[in-house]
Write a structure and sequence with these properties.
This protein has nine helices and 29 strands. The chain is α+β, with helices and mostly antiparallel strands. The protein folds into four domains: 50-80 and 88-147, Thrombin, subunit H, CATH 2.40.10; 161-263, Thrombin, subunit H (Beta Barrel), CATH 2.40.10; 269-362, Pdz3 Domain, CATH 2.30.42.10; 368-459, Roll (Pdz3 Domain). Strands 23, 24, 25, 26, 27, 28 and 29 form a seven-stranded antiparallel β-sheet that branches. Strands 3-4-5-8-7-6 form a six-stranded antiparallel β-barrel.
Length: 460
């Protein structure tokens, strides 16, 4: 097996750059050599930060695959074969970060601990502790754990990720491939990456610091050893690391973390608008000199936006003083804001600047589990489609969330779908969907609107 060997010259060059760019307060990294010359090193920073990064081992019970005939109740009854749920135990590994030493709270990815039966956390000093799941938010892919009977823990300092710039040096700390704690370094390659389809809310830090399976939930830190992101995913078209990794910025993690600790879940509110990116053509049509922003296409009646005075055709250019360039910028800001929080919108209306304040309101409709409608829709969260919520659909049953690998997922339903017909009956809300499905265990014929395209789905 070939192993990459770093060039001593490239390493020396990087270290020379670090000595130049770091301030004296940040660069207290030297260690004496035999000839008295000092060499810069990241070791002192890592010695302080690494104890806050832990390895996570998860055990999950998984139903074992068996012959399809054994799934047939008539076959089992004919041969008098008793029903048996054969299971096997599956183990997986990931990483986490201690964010509150006094209370034993650990921040990690939701996918690291998904469906976990037991969670074991190993500290850098070798201690193995049992962890309890406090709460998860799959929309952002974050989870909070609580270590039982923990003492003498080290927590990490949390930095403001909004101060990051492309080109800043960062270090990834985690547990790749279950090897144990490993450190890799690189730079911030890009900021605010969205549209990757990895999570519901995306504004990733992209980095070339090597991130591999098992690094999920680990720390991305700056050169002061402060947490700037939670390592989450990689782009690996060839199956290995190619220098494109993604971390959830602390700007997003802190809000989610506090809500999970306080409520055990994230209580998201709504602004009550439909939006689209401002294009040069739209900017010209609205008489706006600015070429980037978000256009309000519709305002939901009696929503937070309507109460604040927002109107269709307004162009949002900033939220709480921070520029808004794309629809995802506004969506992320609202999605990360708890119910009751005030947000200041800077808008352009008829070519004039205006500032309005909206109070994030609670979602008006509650979601229900798909299993209440049909056993084949288990794993889906369904609710009535709100008026004006989508441009491509006026009414129907909105698929708010779908758990990956669930019956609803296998049936082909995805988050954002709108069910408009069931068993050849048009449905406009949950009550009509339930009325169209008489037998919860029978096959379904659904007509689904996905981003304006309509198609049939046979669920059985």
């Amino acid at each position: 097996m070939l192993k990459a060997k770093p060039s001593i010259y490239s390493v020396a060059g990087l270290l020379a750059i670090l000595m130049v760019v770091l301030s004296p307060a940040q660069a207290a990294l030297p260690s004496a050599t035999g000839d008295g010359q000092a060499l810069p090193s990241l070791a002192p920073m890592l010695e302080a930060a690494s104890p806050a990064v832990v390895n996570i081992a998860v055990e999950t019970r998984v139903r074992a695959a068996r012959n399809p005939l054994m799934e047939d109740p008539f076959f089992r009854r004919f041969f008098n074969i008793p029903e048996q749920q054969r299971e096997r135990r599956a183990a997986s590994a990931g990483s986490g970060v201690i964010v509150d030493a006094d209370n034993g709270y650990v921040l990690t990815n939701a996918h690291v601990v998904k469906n976990a039966d037991t969670i074991e956390v190993t500290l850098t000093d070798g201690r193995e502790l049992t962890a309890e799941l406090v709460g998860t938010d799959e929309e952002v892919d974050l989870a909070v754990l609580k270590l039982e009977d923990a003492s003498d823990l080290t927590q990490i300092a949390i930095a403001d990720s909004t101060t990051l710039r492309v080109g800043d040096f960062v270090v990834a700390i985690g547990n790749p491939f279950g090897l144990g704690q490993t450190v890799t370094s690189g730079i911030v390659s890009a900021l605010g990456r969205t549209g990757l389809g990895i999570e519901g809310y995306e504004s990733f830090i992209q980095t070339d610091a090597s991130i591999n399976p098992g690094n999920s939930g680990g720390a991305l830190v700056n050169l002061r050893g402060e947490l700037v992101g939670i390592n989450t995913a990689i782009l690996a078209p060839a199956g290995g690391n190619v220098g494109i990794g993604f971390a959830i910025p602390t700007e997003m993690t802190e809000n989610v973390m506090h809500q999970l600790i306080e409520h055990g879940e994230v209580r998201r509110g709504m602004l009550g608008v439909t939006i689209q990116d401002l294009t040069p053509e739209l900017a010209d049509a609205f008489g706006v000199e600015r070429q980037r922003g978000v256009v309000i296409t519709q305002v939901v009646e009696d929503s937070a936006a309507e109460k604040a005075g927002v109107k269709s055709g307004d162009v949002v250019v900033a939220v709480d003083g921070r520029p808004v360039n794309r629809a995802n910028d506004l969506r992320n800001k609202v999605g990360m804001s708890p119910v009751g929080e005030k947000v200041q919108l800077s808008i352009l209306r008829d070519g004039k600047k205006k500032s309005v304040t909206a109070v994030i309101s609670e979602t008006s409709q509650e979601t229900a589990g798909g299993e209440a409608v049909s056993s084949y829709l288990e794993g889906a969260s369904l609710r009535d489609l709100r008026k004006g919520e989508l441009q491509h659909a006026d009414q129907g049953v909105f698929v708010d969330k779908v758990e990956q690998g669930s019956p609803a997922w296998r049936a082909g339903l995805r988050q954002g779908d709108v069910i408009i017909n069931a068993n050849r009956k048009d449905v406009v809300n949950m009550d009509e969907l339930k009325g169209a499905i008489q037998d919860k265990d029978a096959a379904l014929l659904l007509r689904v609107n996905r981003n304006g395209g309509v198609f049939f789905v046979v669920v059985r």
